[in-house]
Specification:
heterodimer; A: alpha/beta; six-stranded mixed β-sheet; 16 helices; globular; B: about 350 residues; mainly alpha; ABC transporter involved in vitamin B12 uptake, BtuC; 2 strands
Chain lengths: ~500, ~350
């Protein structure tokens, strides 16, 4: 007797953009009751593949069969009708609406009434998704927001659920809850396609893995039988260097000093900062850990001078009080900044890399006089592209044409190239593949080794531990003072991430 | 059924060039259908709107003269719109420019001197500039929408001019007509050559185009303007001062509108009267967008609209078409071009 046909079987899926083969004859098979990992560096073709699976892109060649029958997925409606559900990396939620209203909006034919609330509650209980249906979304943490997206997806009773980097914004505790829900889904016979950069969690919960490199399947393996290191090696095709431990060089003078800083936010739902103290000295890497939305953006803006209404306290760079000085002045004192938003904040999306040099260089570096020197900008861009191995479709691509990892290498490179004495980086490797992430971290650690002060704001605890000499934690706009990294551990820091400094745990 | 716009994967170069041309043709076809439905002769319409303005030296010069204020104002507006600042009040800045420059002419009445004309032009620019700064300052200081304040200041300017020419500045010898004294020869922008019609204002408009090409294309300032419009957070990250930039683009567009105002008053009217514009300040908004916010594009679209405006004067007589019809055609043209632009970037899809 033949066994049941697999839930979904993709054979020879190919997709070409211009000259780039994003997917080259990809085969993938997900069985019911399987948690299948899709691994690969940024630009390996994971997103393209998933979009074809969800009807957002049309394959150039290849077939998709669903329960043994060949199907064509013209659009996401067709995919949903079959029973394919998708949870995207970026949430699409309305901040001012309640949880229930948000779920109703995303569900065809639903109204946010009692009956619907009962249906959602039942589903939430069944899968262990804690949801307070009447709360407005802006009061929720990233993990709670993600649960809304998952509930939305589950309401359609999908048989295959695709999760794109679901844990990148979660605390370790929140990630545990997610895994528990996934295991319940698995037990009920659903198939799960799980995309993640966090190889440790893949090893823990996934039962099969398909690894993409350069648009091709390079390996299929059982992740439980691999180490994180061997999985990474399969992804990049060569060994990934560990970040060299932070220098034990003696630290020097205070390059960044924040004293009693309280800031009220300029935007609705922003987080007020309260009484923050922090010092970063020459030669050290300080990490600020915390769950997204606890005041990181507001703190970054206060350090750069980009916004926020300073209530009290001071920010000093290299001994100079810059609390109310513009960002250009801070750059002239030797500071450099890397914002979290790569497109539209750190770069102009539709401008070339050489034009984008202007943004952070125009006050301190030679980019021409009244008229810009296109030559000098191009030279600078070329240097950064070579030094940091930035790969794009042509010699001087527009920022929006680069993959996240390559654009991040460019943005960090643009600041390093200025030889800053202080660099503040918000989420240095968010959504960046393993190799690029390791390069960026190493670059920052090396910079500290040469005597610069490095401040890294990150949601990724592994990153914080890998890079830093000291770790501080931000929660609800307050800062737990930094402790030496060697004298703490993930659990202790994870606990601080959910407790505001100065309040009882 | 829901109609939705889906972004295209990439936009080919050919498509970018062909689309505006197709949009132009579509606008022509729709206009022709409208004229047919009204029972007008298409041949006469073609004569009136296209052949006549372009075939005699006299009317060609008229076209260029009409295009001059449109170009000047549109160039200024390009700076503002590129920075995502909406100066809807160029008409008011134009009027104040005419008013300030005209005041110099009135004050210098009976005097001789080569300084009078330059002083008028400078006063006109200064007037438009200061008037343009008002909505900018209100936005910076109080967060008031510059769209509304600049628009409403148009009416303030028009009524102020109306008051002046009926009151303090009225020509006592003009039998109670609401007008100022006739400007002296020294206060009149004369033709560039004997028997011609083109005046120095045409050269100033070309200079403005050139200046805008250089400033927007190559300078630090031009970069800051575009960056602010494209991604305000990135511009803020770069340290481009938002408030100063708002003042700068409003100063530029106000000054150029003011210059257009005094040029028209000095060269074509030779006096101040209750109304000194035919809506140039508003038409120039269309010019700027038809020209895709590109200075050279604005020059070309100013000429196209000038042809339409000249044609409409004859059309009122020959075809008995009201002037409003011409405005409708301008709107139609803009609509088609913008729709074409949208369709180059997006495709339309019906979702069940």
């Amino acid at each position: 007797m033949r066994s049941a046909p697999p839930l979904i079987r993709c054979q020879g899926l190919s997709k070409t953009f211009g000259t780039l083969k994003a997917n080259d004859s990809v085969d993938l098979l997900v069985e019911s009751g399987e948690i299948h990992a899709l691994l690969g560096e940024n630009g390996a073709g994971k997103s393209t593949f998933v979009k074809m699976l969800y009807g957002l892109l049309k394959p150039d060649a290849g077939t998709i069969s669903w329960l043994g029958k060949a199907v064509t997925l013209a659009d996401p409606d067709a995919a949903r009708a079959l029973g394919i559900g998708m949870v995207f990396q970026h949430f699409s939620l309305f901040d001012d609406l309640t949880v229930l209203e948000n779920i109703a909006i995303g569900t065809a034919g639903a109204r946010a009434d009692q009956a619907f609330a009962a249906r959602v509650s039942a589903l939430a209980r069944e899968y262990g998704l804690e949801l307070d249906l009447q709360r407005p979304v802006w009061t929720l943490s990233a993990g709670e927001r993600q649960r809304i997206e998952i509930a939305r997806c589950l309401l359609q009773e999908p048989r295959l659920i695709v999760l794109d980097e679901p844990t990148s914004v979660l605390t370790p505790q929140e990630a545990e809850n997610l895994f528990a829900s996934l295991l319940r889904l698995q037990a009920k016979g659903a198939g799960i396609l799980f995309i993640s950069h966090k190889l440790e969690e893949v090893r823990r919960i996934c039962t099969a893995a398909t690894i993409l490199r350069g648009g091709k399947v390079v390996a299929r393996t059982d992740p439980r039988k691999e180490s994180a290191r061997s999985l990474a090696a399969l992804m990049v095709g060569e060994g990934v260097a560990d970040v060299r431990p932070p220098s034990t060089l003696e630290t020097g003078r205070d390059l960044l000093a924040v004293r009693g800083l309280s800031v009220s936010p300029e935007i609705a739902h922003g987080i007020p900062l309260r009484g923050i103290d922090l010092t970063v000295r020459a030669g050290e890497v300080v990490a600020i850990a915390g769950v997204a939305g606890n005041g990181q953006s507001e703190f970054f803006a206060a350090l750069t001078g980009e916004g926020g209404l300073i209530q009290s306290g001071t920010v000093s760079i290299d001994g100079e009080d810059v609390t109310r000085r513009p960002i250009g002045m801070r750059r002239r004192l030797g500071a450099a900044f890397v914002p979290e938003g790569r497109l539209g904040h750190a770069t102009l999306p539709q401008r070339t890399l050489s034009e984008n040099i202007m943004l952070s260089w125009h006050e301190t570096e030679d980019v021409g006089g009244f008229f810009l020197s296109l030559d000098k900008l191009r030279q600078a861009a070329r240097k950064i592209i070579t030094r940091f191995d930035v790969r794009g479709p042509n010699a001087d691509p527009r920022a929006a044409q680069l993959s996240g990892g390559n654009l991040q290498k460019y943005i960090v490179g643009r600041e390093i190239e200025r030889n800053p004495r202080l660099i503040v980086v918000d989420q240095p490797t968010w959504g960046v593949d393993a190799r690029a992430a390791s390069l960026i971290r190493q670059t920052l650690v090396d910079l500290a080794g040469q005597g610069a002060a490095v401040l890294v704001i990150t949601q990724d605890l592994d990153e914080a531990f890998e890079m830093s000499d000291r770790i501080a934690v931000i929660c609800a706009g307050r800062m737990h003072p930094p402790v030496p990294t060697r004298m703490t551990n993930r659990e202790a820091i994870g606990l601080l991430m959910t407790t505001a400094h100065g309040e009882a745990a | 059924m829901v109609l939705s716009l889906v972004p295209r994967q990439g936009v080919s170069r050919v498509r970018e060039i062909v689309t505006p041309l197709v949009a132009f043709v579509v606008a022509l076809v729709i206009a022709a259908l409208v004229l047919l439905a009204m029972g007008k002769s298409l041949k006469t319409a073609a004569d009136v709107y296209v052949v006549e303005p372009l075939t005699t030296a006299w009317s060609l010069q008229e076209v260029i003269l009409k295009a001059t204020p449109l170009t000047l104002i549109a160039i200024g507006l390009i700076f503002a719109v590129r920075a995502n600042r909406w100066n809807i009040g160029a008409e008011g800045q134009y009027v104040v420019g005419g008013m300030f420059g005209g005041w110099v002419a009135i004050a210098a009445h009976g005097m001789e001197g080569v300084w009078i004309l330059p002083a008028m032009l400078i006063a006109g620019m200064a007037g438009g500039l200061v008037y343009g700064l008002i909505p900018a300052a209100l936005r910076n200081r109080f967060g008031i929408s510059e769209i509304l304040s600049s628009l409403m200041l148009v009416y303030v300017a028009e009524l102020a001019l109306d008051y002046l020419v009926r009151g303090p500045w009225r020509d006592r010898t003009a039998f109670n007509f609401p007008k100022s004294v006739n400007f002296d020869a020294a206060a009149t922008l004369g033709p560039l050559w004997e028997g011609g019609k083109l005046h120095g204002g045409v050269l100033l408009a070309l200079l403005a185009v050139l200046g805008a090409v250089v400033l927007l294309g190559r300078s630090r300032f031009g970069f800051a303007v575009s960056a602010t419009g494209e991604a305000p957070r990135a511009a803020n990250f770069a340290g481009f001062n938002d408030h100063r930039l708002t003042l700068a683009v409003f100063a530029i567009s106000g000054a150029l509108a003011g210059l257009a105002g005094i040029i028209e008053v000095s060269a074509n009217m030779g006096q101040l009267q209750p109304s000194i514009s035919q809506g140039y300040g508003f038409t120039a908004i269309i010019v700027a967008f038809l020209g895709r916010l590109n200075p050279v594009g604005a020059l070309v679209s100013a000429l196209v609209l000038a042809i339409l405006l000249i044609g409409s004067e004859t059309a009122q007589i020959m075809l008995k078409l009201p002037f409003d019809m011409t405005r409708a055609f301008m709107g139609l043209l803009l609509l088609c071009i913008l729709a074409g632009e949208a369709l180059t970037r997006y495709k339309v899809r019906w979702n069940a």
